[in-house]
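Slide 14.
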Amino acid sequence: MTHSSVPTSVGCLTALWLVKCAKTNEWKDKKDKPRSFGERVKINVGGTIFETYLSTLTRADGTVLSAMVASRWRNQEEIFIDRNPVYFAKILDYLRDSEHFTPPSEEDARDALRKEAEFYNLPGLAEICSPDVFHIGDNVQWKESAVESYWKLLLQLWFNRKYEDIFVWVSCVDCKEPVAQREYRGYVDSAFKHFVKSIHVRQHMLSARGVILSLNGTCCRVQWDNGWQTHLPQSLLRLAKK
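Slide 15: predicted structure.
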C-alpha cells in the first residue's frame, strides 16, 4: 500500500501559516465567519471528493481544516488539498466523534494516519496513533527484546521437577489482578513432556500473533493465535506487522 508522501516545502509552509492564522484568530469579524455550522462543505483531497458539515471541520480549534474554511475560501465551491486521500475519511471520523474513535489496528496504517494527523495539526489523533498506545482489538506480537528476556523464564516455569502436584494462583505484579492458575507436577515423565514442548518456545514467541482482549492500567490480556490467553505488561508488546 502506498502511503502519503512527506509534504513539500510549499505544503508545509501553507499548513503552518493556516494553523498560525487559526490560533491567532486572524478572522475575528462576524461578517467573515461562515453563516451556518449546518452548512455542507466539499473537500477535494488529491482528486477525491469528501463532503461534511462545516461544524465538523471547525470542531477542533487551531487545525489546518478549521483555518481553510475561513473567509478567503468562503466563496469557492470546494476546498482543494493536494494530499493523498487514503486516510482523510479517518480524519473526518475523528473530528465527528473523537471520544469513540478507533485507530487502525495495523502498524503501518496507524503510523500513516499519525503522519496525516500531524499534517492537519490534530495532536489528539496523533497521540492515540502512537505505536506505544494500545487499544482493545489491536493485533500485537512480542517485542524481540522481550522474547530474549522472557523465553528462558517460560522454559524454567514449564520444566521444573521439584514441585509436587499443586495449583497456584499467580497475580500480576503491576495491577495485582489474579491472572493464571498453574499446575506443577513433580513426575519426570510430565516434566519431560513440558521440556519437549518448550524447546522451540523462543521461535514460537517471535512468530506468535495475538489480539488484545482487555486493558488494565499498564497491563493487558491477549488472546494468542494458538488459543492461549496471557496477562502481561503492555511494554512487552508492539503492534503486529502484516
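Speaker note: The domain at 9-128 is CATH 3.30.710.10 (Potassium Channel Kv1.1; Chain A).
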